[in-house]
Amino acid sequence: QETIKVGILHSLSGTMAISETTLKDVMLMLIDEQNKKGGVLGKKLEAVVVDPASNWPLFAEKARELIAKDKVSAVFGCWTSVSRKSVLPVFKELNSILFYPVQYEGEESERNVFYTGAAPNQQAIPAVDYLAKEEKVQRWVLAGTDYVYPRTTNKVLEAYLKSKGVKAEDIMINYTPFGHSDWQTIVSDIKKFGSAGKKTAVVSTINGDANVPFYKELGNQGIKATDIPVVAFSVGEEELAGIDTKPLLGHLAAWNYFQSVKTPENEAFIKQWKAYKKNEKAVTNDPMEAHVIGFAMWVKAVEKAKSFDPDKVIDALPGIEAPNLTGGVSKMLPNHHITKPVLIGEIKADGQFDVVSKTGLVAGDAWSKELDGSKDLIGDWVEKKCGNFNVKTGKCGGA
Amino acid sequence: MLSVDAIDLHYGAAQALRRVSVTAEIGKVTCVMGRNGVGKTSLMRAIVGHQAISGGKISFGGEDISKLRSEDRARAGIAYVPQGREVFPLLSVKENLETGYAPLPRKERYVPSELFDLFPVLKSMLGRRGGDLSGGQQQQLAIARALVTRPKLLVLDEPTEGIQPSIIKDIGRAIDYLRSKGDMAIVLVEQYFDFARDLADTMFVMERGEVVLSGPMAELDANQVQRLIQV
Amino acid sequence: MIALATLLALQPSAASAQGSPQAADEAFTRLGADSFSDTNRAIEILIANAHPQAAIIIEALADGRLLAGGGAVVVKTKDGKLLDARTGAALASEPPGLGAVRLNNGVRRNIQAALGGLGLLNPDAGKRIAAAEAVFKSRDVSVLPVLETAIGKETDTRAKAALRQAQAAILIAKADAPPFDRLAAVDVLRERGDQDALATLRSLPGDATSALKDAQARAITDIEGKLALWRTAQNLWYGLSLGSVLLLAAIGLAITFGVMGVINMAHGEMVMLGAYTTFIVQEVIRTRFPGLFDYSLAIALPLAFLVAALVGIAIERGVIRFLYGRPLETLLATWGISLILQQAVRTAFGPTNREVGAPAFMSGAFDLGGLAITWNRLWIIVFAALVFGALLAILKLTPIGLQMRAVTQNRRMASAMGIRTGRVDALTFGLGSGVAGLAGVALSQIDNVSPNLGQSYIIDSFMVVVFGGVGNLWGTLVGAMTLGIANKLLEPYAGAVLGKIALLVFIILFIQKRPRGLFAQKGRAVEA
Amino acid sequence: MNASVPGALTSSLLYLDGVSVSFDGFKAIRGLSLTIEPGEMRAIIGPNGAGKTTMMDIITGKTRPDVGTVMFGGSVDLTKLDEAAIANLGIGRKFQKPTVFDFHSIEDNILLALKSKRTVARTLFWKTAAADAKRIDDILGIIKLGDARDRLAGSLSHGQKQWLEIGMLLAQDPKLLLVDEPAAGMTDGETAETATLLKEIAKDHSVIVVEHDMGFIRELGVKVTVLHEGSVLAEGPLDQVSANERVVEVYLGR
Amino acid sequence: MITRFLIQGMDKRGLVFLAVLAVLAVLVPLANLLLPPGSLLHVPTSTMSLWGKYLCYALLAISLDLVWGYCGILSLGHGAFFALGGYAMGMYLMRQIGSRGTYGNPILPDFMVFLNWSELPWYWYGFSSFPFAMLMVLAVPGLLAFVFGWFAFRSRVTGVYLSIITQALTYALLLAFFRNDMGFGGNNGLTDFKEIVGFNVQAQSTRAALFSMTCVMLIAGFLIARGIVSSKLGKVVIAIRDAESRTRFLGYRVDRFKLFVFTVSACMAGVAGALYVPQVGIINPSEFAPANSIETVIWVAVGGRGTLVGAALGAVVVNYAKTVFTSGFMAPYWLFALGALFVFVTLFMPKGILGTAQDWWARRKAPPKPSPAAEPAPAE
Ligand SMILES: Nc1ncnc2c1ncn2[C@@H]1O[C@H](COP(=O)(O)OP(=O)(O)OP(=O)(O)O)[C@@H](O)[C@H]1O
Ligand SMILES: Nc1ncnc2c1ncn2[C@@H]1O[C@H](COP(=O)(O)OP(=O)(O)OP(=O)(O)O)[C@@H](O)[C@H]1O
Ligand SMILES: NC(N)=O
Ligand SMILES: [Mg+2]
Ligand SMILES: [Mg+2]
């Protein structure tokens, strides 16, 4: 019987393997499960796994291979923005579909890409609002790894905080290189910044490997969440699995999903995942949920279009709804981003998060309202057939 | 003591030794002579195990050592003073000498004081790095280092090269002394005919990888030898 | 802020005063409401009404032992018994639908403040100091009376000082306190002289008299001046600490690369193996012998050394020994080996970080004058020094050390001297690898334990060894410390990224001045 | 040769005065003074460690003296120049330990040494002229390695490398040749031949030879300088210095 | 003079290599453009792009072999020159986007608009001109190599010390280019290219042309490198590799020779990078990663150091292996395979693929010339 191929483009080696490998596994599980349900349009799905090895040119090469050689119907993949940027031209040229499951800096809406992770407005801003309201935070440290996602997020946040009346001297911005491991100076700077008599919080866009030593240093220097809370956008259950979380009690993370959310959907998913991994300690996290949603949406769109043809599926996708695991129903928007709730969680001693706040569904903005260059832009692939439509000039193609 | 039996030796495809046979007795000095590039050093390397032979057999004290590793030959009592000195450049003179302790039992691990009588300069330079020494000083160190191991067979490849005349005489006397002690066989490669003639009990002359003349020194015709090593 | 006006009543001796039962009812309803603001309010009510169970309930709440559900509020004691929160009576059976009352940072802060007030008269001096610290941070005016009583009774000097500081923190912000007391409070805070004192001083409200403001300003400059000095010292300490990490990471390489000349790209993976050994040891201890946890690192050290050394020996015997005299090819082979080891660990342990915990003696920090010193960093410095000393002794004082150096300088001649070169090579590589394994144990305390661990140290390690001067152990020490300290002194000015770039440029320029590293070997011997 | 260079400070080709150098406190050369006239051949002898090789290191720029004057051709201060510049002035050297280019053929070793402009552009677009080829052939003949011209220099025996070094020195055609122990490792016959060769060269070059082989020195028949502990102990014809008590004591022995 | 320079010392191996490249340069694009996709001989565009990438790496490998194999300079930072050439090309391609960017700004590239930059930084001037950009492709890596080498070679930094500072150089550039403030697009790099000299970069015909161009540049690079190493300068450079100070005593100014070779090599690496970028579609700071440069060294070692053709072969073999290993059932375990390949080559092919093949060939045909024994290892 003929099968339909689905590409999985996640790094299984190199620096990003640490994050991306589980996403490959979750995709395999979802495809497996779909096949047990009889596949899609009566055809079985077949996963094609490749390893782009955390190497950006290799991402492009592998994307081309998946689409041109393996003839996959859709690809689920990428983590870092640069890997997405690297495969973008390939997806455009060969006209295929990419589901991208990770929070990112926004400023993009492409016909061939569906963004199931959070846009900045679905993560950063609600988190800051929570801290300002619940913890009465008045002074902010924006600490991040020196690359585009943190820079952008911090730009958006800086503009936002200033619009809320926070003074420039109450914002400290700090960047560190990838894999930064000696946090002594920075943590003590944060401590110092936090001792100015105003309630202070850290908004962390520190990425990947650098987080563990950062949190270890926080713990050792005795910065408690009750003194200076840290809210992170890139630290989830998986990252915490590598740290002793007892000293980190109460520090926060903002995501659209936490494993600890008690809904029947989520509990079923966690059970399935643990069974699939044959590991009682296996954890779930936000980008995994994004793939769950994305995959469900793709299946529905294919069924709606009654075809695997990318063009038809791309057209069918906006408007498709799929339940998320936190008890709502997410919807694919015309800008190829989805609606998601924003959850704030506090770290618990067992490495899980205690959800302390949850919003309703927030629609993902492809273009940030806080940035001058993009405040008038929208993505609309339904009406305008355009990813960067300028509402002021009424023209497609930016400014 | 040492018996080299019809050995061949190749560098890649080039043959450097052809069926060379040499013997050395305890209490005797065996001298090997020959022009540049005839294979003297190659023969010494074969004896100490630095170069594998491709035919023949080398035995030492009655045992076949052809297949032994260099270090095991050293432990069996073969010491080597190579051409080109090869002292350990970054080790001090003292440490260079101490490398000779390796094959010795613990209680014999000391530098015999006669060595410093023989090469007084070494005593004054114990702390200097071997590589910093002058050429002749290095040569003296190389000989002393070999003697630290209390060998049964001492292999000397041009030990007088670069050494001042007075010390050459001392080395001659030392070799004489070592022979007279009667517990060691000595194989000496030498270019100075006079020096060799004075010391040698047995002489082997080589030409193009082969032994062309050999015998007890007393029975050899000095002129014939000299002719062979002439250009 | 929580009203603690009648806090004295909470003392068992004065347990007669009772609040209104309605208020208590409200508190218990709120505790069951699963909302942070309700929980906060409940704490306030319990304290305000001096509920006899308040201390027990709040402590339970802090520990996550307060359960609520279906109208019941239950305290679970530390030994697992269930008590009715209201009465303290033991419960026969567990009421259905109980869940822990949840906390967030706001609630936690309130609890701390409340417990601070409650702990001021605790018989344990340590607890009193902790309580005083909590009050110092919360600056809760309502605690003042208790605080004063406590100061009156206090005999322990350290506790007394802490209580005075807490009192000062409250007084300075208390507009209606006697001006003289407030001035005295400024002095007490100046005396304390740390970052928190500064914060407290800065929080002086705008209503203050000019005299008070002057005193405050002076105290602040005073403290800031002192802190600036301490900060330099602190940066030096950080530098030392980073330097010791670099030293640990590099020192094994100083053997395999520096002494043996093997361009050992798999060095980082040896460090990684050490870290994973630590992980396994802790895993076994966690599941089998939880009591040994504090000794886990001591147990891991020899094992990590052994594991890394054995793998090192296997690599040397299996691959490297065929490559002597071809140093550059060792780069190719060890790069291959490093890929294999990384993937092997990834396959065996998964790609994600593994948790390595800190034993009690390595957690937390203490103050030394104005220096905040974290225990783990201190131990790492000590450990690095010990490893360095031991290695130096092995290399310089033992016969095997001499043989190692002889073998690397001239392998064939060494064998002609009767040195067992094969064994020495294996031992040397094993030693270098084993030391890398030891480094892994230490690094597991401050960094990720993941398959990428080794990669993140390999470049720095080579920089250190080369910067210090290849083949010189002292060079590695001084190189590591120089780079560590330079990095930490640059960082506050340039930031972490530019600081690192500046450091790399510094290395490039420095090598121009000293083309053979910091501790260059000179003279003929080097060229020979 | 160029004794009449305007501004020359001395008429000597090589002029060392008051040169001292020490290594970590050890004085290897102390107040050494020496002059070599154009066209002169000088033999230098002296105990091991007397400083003979170090002296050549100083002349060729490998070692910088702590104090002292080193002048070449009357006006060039050698202590200010690097090795390449000194070599290009016309000072060639044979090393005590033979150092040749192991991975080049014997012929290429000679070619690299052959007198020519040493600029990047010249070497990049170099074409071996007939005269050059002939010169290489001649030298290969002299050092008796003509048959082995294509062999890699690394595969030569110790003595053969000595010869190759001598050949390279000839190819350089320098004004001043510094020859460190040319006869070491050579048979008596070869030693004699080397002496003849050097005498031939000395007809139109200046030469400094260091040797421990008294037969060889005698053969050369030139003025001898005896170095001891870094300075000149005696100077004169060989017979005269060999009669010197001190020289016998520290060097020749009894 | 030039032709003699280019053909001197050309051996059979080199001729075969050139012939293969010439054939590829012509036939592959034709097979891609003219033959229908179904045809047996049709070369799919993806295969052609892939091989275009390999050939860029091959040029990089040749440039490294020139300095390492012949001059003994183990550069662990050659990726920097490659990346700089790539960035120069990337900047040209960015400027070609014009107002077709997402924000539609005719002057500023998207990432600048997005960072609220109001004007083009000065160092972006001129890059809209193709000739200028091509000049920069050579000049930027060349100049960096020249300045860096000028200091390092004069100070006589050699061996591992040189290797490590080249690594420090590329590492510093990596960190610098990561910074958004540098004006090169930070981590996301330069991407979303549209046109090159007026042709759509994505178009099949453009890809074919780029492929041919890569072959041509590889031929040119090889000829230049071959010319250099078989000239007398090549012999000097090998002499420097094996006995640097001896070379100095012969009167050669070692620093200048090294500087020449290093600079030429850097320019060549820059060209490789420039050809790479339009074919891959992105340039990002990770091209500066020290690991990339180390990998390049490994290609050369695998193929055969000091053989030029071997270096190119090594680049293609390793990268082809990567392509194959990272797909299919091997994907989770491919590092085992690649690692084992490296270990295997070192142990059993000590002179690399080409060197070993050559030995084997020679042994079959004629008894070998004696080679220096293990004792005098070439200086590094
Ligand atoms: N770099 C150095 N460090 C320490 N001592 C040195 C150094 N270089 C030379 N020496 C010492 O300086 C002295 C002179 O050495 P030099 O090589 O010039 O002697 P020489 O006269 O050439 O001896 P030989 O006849 O043995 O070759 C020796 O004692 C040597 O040990
Ligand atoms: N490593 C080597 N590789 C190839 N050939 C070599 C090697 N070493 C020596 N030979 C050749 O082998 C032959 C014998 O060399 P050997 O060194 O034994 O000569 P020798 O008699 O010691 O000469 P000398 O008096 O010059 O020291 C020579 O022709 C030499 O060129
Ligand atoms: N999109 C990110 N997190 O790079
Ligand atoms: Mg010999
Ligand atoms: Mg000398």
Automatic annotation (TrEMBL), chain B:
<dbReference type="GO" id="GO:0015658">
    <property type="term" value="F:branched-chain amino acid transmembrane transporter activity"/>
</dbReference>
<feature type="domain" description="ABC transporter">
    <location>
        <begin position="2"/>
        <end position="231"/>
    </location>
</feature>
<dbReference type="InterPro" id="IPR017780">
    <property type="entry name" value="ABC_transptr_urea_ATP-bd_UrtE"/>
</dbReference>
<dbReference type="InterPro" id="IPR027417">
    <property type="entry name" value="P-loop_NTPase"/>
</dbReference>
<dbReference type="InterPro" id="IPR003439">
    <property type="entry name" value="ABC_transporter-like_ATP-bd"/>
</dbReference>
<protein>
    <submittedName>
        <fullName>Urea ABC transporter ATP-binding subunit UrtE</fullName>
    </submittedName>
</protein>
<dbReference type="GO" id="GO:0016887">
    <property type="term" value="F:ATP hydrolysis activity"/>
</dbReference>
<keyword id="KW-0067">ATP-binding</keyword>
<keyword id="KW-0029">Amino-acid transport</keyword>
<keyword id="KW-0547">Nucleotide-binding</keyword>
<comment type="similarity">
    <text>Belongs to the ABC transporter superfamily.</text>
</comment>
<dbReference type="GO" id="GO:0015807">
    <property type="term" value="P:L-amino acid transport"/>
</dbReference>
From TrEMBL, chain C:
<keyword id="KW-1003">Cell membrane</keyword>
<feature type="transmembrane region" description="Helical">
    <location>
        <begin position="492"/>
        <end position="511"/>
    </location>
</feature>
<feature type="transmembrane region" description="Helical">
    <location>
        <begin position="327"/>
        <end position="345"/>
    </location>
</feature>
<feature type="signal peptide">
    <location>
        <begin position="1"/>
        <end position="17"/>
    </location>
</feature>
<keyword id="KW-0029">Amino-acid transport</keyword>
<dbReference type="InterPro" id="IPR001851">
    <property type="entry name" value="ABC_transp_permease"/>
</dbReference>
<dbReference type="GO" id="GO:0022857">
    <property type="term" value="F:transmembrane transporter activity"/>
</dbReference>
<keyword id="KW-0472">Membrane</keyword>
<dbReference type="Pfam" id="PF02653">
    <property type="entry name" value="BPD_transp_2"/>
</dbReference>
<keyword id="KW-1133">Transmembrane helix</keyword>
<keyword id="KW-0732">Signal</keyword>
<keyword id="KW-0812">Transmembrane</keyword>
From TrEMBL, chain D:
<dbReference type="GO" id="GO:0005886">
    <property type="term" value="C:plasma membrane"/>
</dbReference>
<dbReference type="GO" id="GO:0005524">
    <property type="term" value="F:ATP binding"/>
</dbReference>
<dbReference type="GO" id="GO:0016887">
    <property type="term" value="F:ATP hydrolysis activity"/>
</dbReference>
<feature type="domain" description="ABC transporter">
    <location>
        <begin position="14"/>
        <end position="254"/>
    </location>
</feature>
<dbReference type="InterPro" id="IPR003439">
    <property type="entry name" value="ABC_transporter-like_ATP-bd"/>
</dbReference>
<keyword id="KW-0547">Nucleotide-binding</keyword>
<dbReference type="InterPro" id="IPR017781">
    <property type="entry name" value="ABC_transptr_urea_ATP-bd_UrtD"/>
</dbReference>
<keyword id="KW-0067">ATP-binding</keyword>
<dbReference type="InterPro" id="IPR003593">
    <property type="entry name" value="AAA+_ATPase"/>
</dbReference>
<protein>
    <submittedName>
        <fullName>Urea ABC transporter ATP-binding protein UrtD</fullName>
    </submittedName>
</protein>
<dbReference type="Pfam" id="PF12399">
    <property type="entry name" value="BCA_ABC_TP_C"/>
</dbReference>
<keyword id="KW-0813">Transport</keyword>
Automatic annotation (TrEMBL), chain E:
<feature type="transmembrane region" description="Helical">
    <location>
        <begin position="130"/>
        <end position="153"/>
    </location>
</feature>
<feature type="transmembrane region" description="Helical">
    <location>
        <begin position="257"/>
        <end position="277"/>
    </location>
</feature>
<keyword id="KW-1003">Cell membrane</keyword>
<keyword id="KW-0812">Transmembrane</keyword>
<protein>
    <submittedName>
        <fullName>Urea ABC transporter permease subunit UrtC</fullName>
    </submittedName>
</protein>
<feature type="transmembrane region" description="Helical">
    <location>
        <begin position="57"/>
        <end position="87"/>
    </location>
</feature>
<dbReference type="GO" id="GO:0015658">
    <property type="term" value="F:branched-chain amino acid transmembrane transporter activity"/>
</dbReference>
<dbReference type="Pfam" id="PF02653">
    <property type="entry name" value="BPD_transp_2"/>
</dbReference>
<dbReference type="InterPro" id="IPR017778">
    <property type="entry name" value="ABC_transptr_urea_perm_UrtC"/>
</dbReference>
<keyword id="KW-0472">Membrane</keyword>
<dbReference type="InterPro" id="IPR001851">
    <property type="entry name" value="ABC_transp_permease"/>
</dbReference>
<feature type="transmembrane region" description="Helical">
    <location>
        <begin position="160"/>
        <end position="178"/>
    </location>
</feature>
